[in-house]
Design brief:
12 helices, TIM Barrel, alpha/beta, two-stranded antiparallel ribbon, 2 domains
């Protein structure tokens, strides 16, 4: 065997170093790729954000203006603005939401019942949103007629009554209006009529780039199978649901729920069509958990559906003030989001 000279040894050593370095880099690259591929998908802070539903402050806006539903309906028909007898002004809602550290709001049309086509009002409200650094996510629409009305003319009138709110939502930069799928008749009859009304309204919404979303809001709509069936019948990309944690009472008797739908099953059935989520809260225990709805269990259902976006606080309790209830719901949601990240 011949001995290598110094020049050959140096050349060989250099080649060995290059080979080792190259192998190390390739191995490291493969390891990083494998770690990325195999890592579990986690919920980031951007997956879920918190919005504030205006109904959380309805007592502060309405004051003594609403004593019972019949009185409310009468005022709404005859003198909507006279309902606003509270200590807070609905015009200030953007800055109120911002004071809680919330940057998206969900409006309720009955606080602005006469304002949908008032351009001066809409312009001023939009300006206040911009000043507060708050965006409008959706407008909840009530008292505009039944989209599942058995009478075709009345149903179409209800559809057309929503047009101005679609236009208002468009102007304010919202992505959706929330509607109700109510009507008269059997489950099958109301489902057929509601699908017709939603389809017609959905067409108008699509022309404006606005979603039409249905909340489980009592009656048939609180049955997850029924409402998801209506969604499947409509089959439009811009017609979906706004699953509410707590609105699963199908039949009410006086001040109690006579027939309730399982909220966890209902959330599971409605989430595939969801374009928003409403975190309804009433009471909290000593640990800050909602006493009727397991928020963590529900948010796991929301996460599993693939939904990402805003979860709206909608406090309706009596034990805490509206201010305290909003803060308690926000704290609970933040805690749940953190747990989902772990």
């Amino acid at each position: 065997m011949k001995y290598l000279n110094n020049q050959s040894i140096t050349k060989l050593f250099t080649l060995l170093l290059i080979a080792v370095f190259t192998f190390s880099c390739v191995s490291k690259e493969k390891k990083e790729i494998n770690e990325t591929t195999d890592a579990p998908v986690e919920v980031t802070s951007q997956d879920f954000q918190i919005s504030l539903a205006q109904w959380s402050l309805h007592k502060s806006f309405f004051g003594q203006g609403v004593k019972d539903f019949e009185t409310f309906r009468r005022y709404l028909k005859d003198s909507p603005d006279s309902l606003l007898q509270g200590v807070l002004d609905p015009m200030d809602f953007p800055s109120i939401a911002a004071s809680y550290g919330i940057n998206s709001i969900e409006l309720v049309n009955t606080f602005y019942y006469t304002k949908a086509e008032d351009q001066e009002f809409l312009t001023e409200f939009k300006k206040r949103c911009e000043t507060a650094g708050v965006s409008v996510g959706l407008i909840m629409c009530d008292a505009l007629g039944n989209l599942g009305d058995a009478d075709a003319d009345a149903r179409m009138a209800a559809v057309e009554n929503h047009y101005k709110w679609v236009d208002a939502a468009k102007f304010l930069g919202a992505h959706s209006i929330r509607v109700n799928a109510a009507g008269q008749g059997t489950e099958a009859e109301v489902a057929t009529n509601a699908a017709d009304g939603l389809s017609k309204l959905g067409e108008y919404g699509a022309s404006k780039g606005i979603n039409i979303i249905v909340e489980n809001h009592g009656g048939y709509s609180s049955d997850g199978v029924w409402l998801s069936g209506v969604m499947e019948t409509v089959g439009m990309d811009n017609v979906g649901t706004l699953p509410d944690f707590g609105n699963f009472c199908i039949e009410r008797e006086t001040n109690r729920c006579k027939l309730a739908y399982d909220r966890y099953q209902g959330m599971t059935e409605l989430m595939p069509f969801a374009k928003g989520v409403s975190a309804k809260s009433h009471r909290f225990d000593e640990n800050g958990n909602e006493t009727k709805s397991d928020f963590l269990r529900i948010m796991k259902i929301v996460k599993a559906s693939g939904f990402k976006g805003y979860v709206g606080i909608e406090y309706e309790g009596d034990e805490l003030s509206e201010d305290e209830g909003i803060k308690a719901t926000k704290a609970l949601l933040e805690s749940v989001f953190k747990t989902l990240n772990e």
